[in-house]
Specification:
The structure holds 3 protein chains of 3 kinds. By secondary structure, chain A is mainly alpha-helical. Chain A contains 16 helices and no strands. Chain C has 9 helices and 10 strands. Chain C has helices spanning 61-68, 90-99, 115-125, 131-144, 160-172, 190-205, 217-223, 241-246, 251-263; strands at residues 23-32, 35-45, 50-54, 76-81, 84-85, 100-103, 178-182, 209-213, 226-231, 234-239. Classes of the chains: A mainly alpha, B mainly alpha, C alpha/beta. At the A-B interface, helix 3, helix 9, helix 10, helix 14 and helix 16 of A face helix 2, helix 4, helix 5, helix 12 and helix 13 of B. Chain B: This is Amino acid ABC transporter permease.
């Protein structure tokens, strides 16, 4: 090794370092290397460049230049959408969003109480931000989550602290999406840890139960579980006992998420070197002490990036409750265009709803990518 | 180790330990724990089961799969096998399974092609290509699939009627009734050509194997590709030619209010297929990219330093290693695509979920309906993962 | 530190033959699957005695000391530690693990805990010691292995030699009667081996009962009361360092010694 490195020139006595020629560094060199490095690359760049300019200009024309932002409403409260229809697809009819955004965001929640679901959404965002901070990655997260989720429940239901009671049937829109995803995670996570530990246990019956649960759930689509929740659950319960549809869907999502998270957690458990288990055993720690003090703190840290990715998956998957008629963000969007005067403006609505999903998922996925890079750097050191 | 086997005492088996009935015995604890957990889970299941049995009795809901033989009376627009509403539920469900497979198989093939292309594009040296691919992957993965399906379906419905159908290519019609494409009139010669092509592939594989064996014996590399082209392309062409080279195309044409002839794709199927393929391709692109990146630069350098050229390096060194990284996540993406095809119910494509759902609404037999859905998917999932496990084990073995 | 040295620089034996033995292995057998890895191993270690175990790789020496604190379970024969027999009884297991400290080849420090937390973990959770006392105790041992200033750092920030010394301090914090060392210097760079061996010599001077699996012959000569040579799962020779190293009886030991000497 040292023989090879010895051949590098020493600084003293050598000729002064020259800066590289302009063809090797700087913007011109960059453009040449990355866009026009050969005739094929040049041709691709030119064709793609042209297509991109055309597409962007077309989109700008549709979304901004030719777009209609509001339409008059007649005396019966029916929107006059003739102007939009005359565009024949050359411009967006954002009027549907202007007119219906409150409905899409909060569903049929009482209009004058909309500040409550709005505040709930902000609380969820705040909860995500706090959870993403590394200084909070310890037991403190548990009371923070418990407190925030309780506050969210109080805000949504009301009936206390002078807030009028709002039955669950009237909730809708974005809060439902956030509730399904976040409560799903909050309950599925502890479940998944138990299942992952069980799957690595050397007790055959417990291991078999955990394997059966994970593989069964992962082998069927979420829809079948949601159907089960909507049509089979009522049969499971004793006569007279009934739980509402949202809660049933929530249980299905928890069971679903639990199986997928369990596999993520299991990967983290497997990534720990055997020596960590042995050192803990040699100290005389009991199984639960070993798991709680040594194994889980390390394993969970390593799986946070895949955990966030799995969460992004659930966040998107909650939209499937549309199929069993629960009023989440996507259902609200789809319902908004059922009204005859707004029929045919699905693209605008789906772009709007899509943007909301995109903002949440993009932020989370960038966060997880950044975190992964950071953890990798840490590990390499 | 070898001389250890000579030692006669090597054969001595470890003895069994007697079990002592004490809480301090680890195995006793293990058994007690298992009994407790199984007992709790078992009693929950029993409780749910007895509730269900009671509820079914009270509500007078029939049980069992007897309904499968009854007349379904539900119309199905798309069917790969002959079907009529007077057929049985069993036949209706079979049609549903075939519709699921139809979208899943085509989707897997197309998503693999598109995803691989995008994954490679993300690694392109051309900045523009790499960035567009990255943008695609990021956006498509951050939007719910159901939203994308509804979006595509809206676009389909927004297409003009058959009379004003879009004609991007000669003989291709895009309208709100779906896609119409020209189709080959299928004859015996075509079937024979396809069989010849399959035979050619098998023959090529055998030839490549023997060529390699001969190379190992005498050191002379042999070209495989001329034989491969002859066997895989030439042979089917020859068979087709020998059988009269039938070449009749069924062109779709507008008759009255709709199209006649050609191959049709319903708007529901087209929306589902486009949505599934574009969505899954975003995930497959990441898998392919990660697989290629997983082979370190050092492997390229080491192989090139040995004097191997670009082609052999790719074929002998890089691909085998990348494939091992790619195949497990690829399997789960295939499984996901298949499971995601169940979202068809939201846009009215009649897959197994949609038909089973209608069945359970008509018969009121929820448990059987959902059991059928789950059974179908479990079977599909299990077969795909068994096949991929077998394939994975095989390439892992061959290359080691 | 204040250990009495005899004429050859050997630390005087602290073995107490009057007391009952600290460790007894009686016809211990163990299998990994069908592979017979320990064969009728007999060994007695007196309180305060220092035993070095050597032998080629795969000879079962690590397995043997891992059986002593039951990281591996033996299937036949008897192991007595501090008068307690090892069995499936979890109470005896708890008792033994409190009395036996272990140092691993790969340190196995807990990377998510600071050095101090690594050392206080077992005293707090197993010995139920108040946190303040545990920290005082830990600082005392960290001072003894000469790295008190690193207490607030994480294992990843320390060199290999420092990590291994922390691992020794961590084991000592349980105030064990017996210390097991499983190739403690094998994973270390040459320049760090000495600092770890010095720490172990210091420990030997305090009269600790030690079983050390190592190939460091210098250490064995300086510290060991007895050297055990193992091969293919059997104890082949036992004796003082002089007997074993200078006057090997069996061919197996002769061959091993010649390989070791050539290697160094």
């Amino acid at each position: 090794m040292s023989d090879i490195t010895a051949s590098t020139p020493t600084l003293h006595g050598g000729s002064p370092a020259r800066s590289a020629p302009i063809t090797a560094v700087g913007p011109i060199a960059w453009v040449r290397a990355n866009l026009f490095s050969g005739w094929l690359s040049t041709a691709v760049t030119l064709v793609l460049g042209y297509l991109i300019v055309r597409a962007v200009m077309g989109f700008v024309d549709w979304a901004f230049v030719n777009a209609i932002w509001s339409v008059p409403v007649n005396g019966n409260g029916v929107a006059q959408t003739q102007a939009c229809r005359e565009l024949h697809g050359t411009g967006a009819c954002w009027a549907v969003v202007t007119e219906k955004h409150r409905f899409m965001l909060f569903g049929t929640y009482p209009f004058e109480q909309h500040w409550r679901p709005a505040l709930v959404c902000l609380l969820f965002v705040a909860l995500y931000i706090v959870s993403s901070m590394r200084s909070f990655w310890n037991w403190r997260l548990i009371p923070i989550w418990a407190g925030t989720l309780t506050a969210i429940g109080i805000l949504m239901w009301g009936g206390v602290l002078g807030l009028p009671y709002v039955p669950q049937e009237r909730w809708g829109g974005l809060p439902i999406t956030l509730i399904l995803a976040t409560f799903g995670l909050a309950f599925a996570f502890p479940l998944s840890i138990l299942v992952a530990l069980g799957r690595r246990s050397n007790l055959p019956a417990i291991k078999a139960l955990c394997v059966l649960y994970v593989e069964l759930i992962r082998g069927v689509p979420l829809i079948s579980l949601l159907f089960m929740a909507s049509v089979m659950f009522p049969l499971f319960l004793p006569e007279g006992m009934n739980i509402d549809k949202l809660l049933r869907a929530q249980i299905a999502i928890i069971l679903f998420a639990g199986a997928y998270l369990a596999e993520v957690v299991r990967a983290g458990l497997q990534s720990l070197p055997k020596g960590q288990y042995e050192a803990a055993d040699a100290m005389g720690l009991s199984y639960w002490q070993k798991t709680g003090l040594i194994i889980l703190p390390q394993a969970l840290r390593t799986v946070i990036p895949p955990l966030v990715n799995t969460f992004i998956g659930f966040f998107k998957d909650t939209s499937l409750v549309l199929i069993i008629g629960i009023f989440d963000l996507l259902t609200a969007g789809k319902t908004a265009i059922v009204e005859p005067s707004w029929q045919g403006f699905g693209v605008e609505v789906y772009v709007f709803v899509g943007l909301i999903y995109l903002v949440f998922c993009f932020a989370m996925s960038k966060y997880s990518q950044g975190l992964e890079a950071e953890l990798n750097r840490h590990r390499r050191r | 180790m070898s001389d250890a086997t000579v030692d006669p005492r090597f054969r001595r088996k470890p003895p069994k330990r007697p079990l002592r009935l004490s809480w301090a015995d680890e195995r006793v604890r293990g058994i007690v724990w298992q009994l407790v957990v199984v007992g709790i889970v078992g009693s929950i299941i029993y409780w749910l089961w007895s509730n269900t049995v009671h509820n079914l009795e009270v509500r007078r809901i029939a049980t069992g799969f007897g309904f499968l033989g009854r007349e379904a009376g539900l119309p199905i627009a798309e069917h790969l096998i002959p079907y009529d509403p007077t057929d049985t539920y069993l036949r209706a469900l079979t049609v549903g399974v075939l519709n699921t497979l139809k979208v899943a198989v085509v989707g897997i093939v197309l998503a693999t092609i598109l995803g691989t292309a995008i994954g490679i594009a993300r690694l392109s040296k051309n900045f523009l290509v790499a960035k567009i691919a990255a943008f695609y992957v990021e956006v498509i993965r951050d939007l719910p699939l159901l939203l994308q399906l509804l979006f595509w379906y809206t676009i389909m419905q927004g297409l003009p009627g058959p009379r004003q159908a879009l004609k991007p290519l000669d003989g291709v019609f895009l309208s709100n009734r779906g896609f119409r494409l020209p189709a080959l009139v299928w004859e015996g010669a075509h079937t024979a050509a396809v069989l010849a092509c399959l035979a050619g592939i098998v023959a090529t594989w055998l030839y490549a194997r023997s060529a390699r064996a001969k190379q190992m014996a005498d050191g002379q590399p042999r070209r495989v590709w001329p034989a491969a082209i002859a066997l895989i392309i030439g042979l089917p062409l020859l068979v087709w030619q020998a059988m009269g080279a039938p070449w009749a195309i069924d062109w779709p044409a507008l008759r009255g209010f709709n199209f006649q002839g050609g191959m049709s794709m319903s708007p529901e199927y087209a929306a589902l297929l486009i949505g599934l393929v574009t969505y899954t391709a975003g995930f497959i692109a990441e898998v392919v990219r990660a697989g290629i990146l997983s082979v370190s630069q050092g492997q390229w350098e080491a192989a090139q330093a040995l004097g191997l050229r670009h082609g052999p390096v790719l074929r002998l060194i890089v691909l085998p290693q990348a494939l091992r990284v790619i195949i497990p996540p690829m399997t789960s993406n295939y499984l996901n695509l298949t499971k995601n095809s169940s979202l068809a119910v939201a846009i009215g494509y009649q897959d197994i979920v949609s038909i089973a759902n209608t069945t359970l609404n008509q018969t009121g037999q929820a448990i059987e309906g959902i059991a059928i859905i789950m059974l179908v998917y479990l079977t599909i999932s299990l077969s795909i993962s068994l096949f991929m496990n077998w394939y994975n084990a095989k390439i892992a073995l061959v290359e080691r | 530190m204040s250990a009495a040295l005899d004429t050859q620089g050997h630390i005087a034996s602290a073995a107490r033959t009057d007391a009952p033995p600290a460790i007894v292995l009686d016809k211990v057998n163990k299998w990994f699957g069908a592979l017979h890895v320990l064969r009728d191993v007999d060994l007695q270690v007196a309180l305060g005695e220092r035993v070095v175990v050597c032998g080629p790789s795969g000879s079962g020496k690590s397995t043997m000391i891992r059986c002593i604190n039951r990281l591996e379970t033996h299937q036949e024969g008897k192991i007595l530690v501090d008068g307690i027999e090892l069995s499936d009884d979890l109470r005896s297991l708890d008792a033994i693990r409190r009395e036996v400290g272990m140092v691993f080849q790969s340190f196995n420090l807990f990377p998510h805990l600071t050095i101090l937390e690594n050392c206080t973990l077992a005293p707090i959770w197993v010995r139920k010691m108040p946190k303040k006392d545990a920290e005082e105790l830990a600082m005392e041992y960290l001072t003894r292995v000469r790295i008190p200033e690193q207490a607030k750092k994480y294992p990843g920030q320390l060199s290999g030699g420092q990590q291994q010394r922390v691992a020794i301090a961590r084991a000592l914090c349980m105030k064990p009667k017996i210390m097991l060392f499983d190739e403690p210097t094998s994973a270390l760079d040459p320049e760090m081996i000495k600092e770890v061996l010095d720490t172990m010599v210091m420990l030997a001077g305090t009269g600790m009962t030690m079983i050390v699996v190592t190939h460091e012959m210098g250490f064995a000569r300086q510290v060991a009361d007895r050297v055990v040579f193992m091969d293919r799962g059997e104890v082949v020779e036992v004796g003082t360092p002089e007997q074993v190293f200078n006057d090997p009886k069996t061919d197996r030991l002769k061959m091993f010694l010649s390989q070791i000497l050539r290697g160094h």
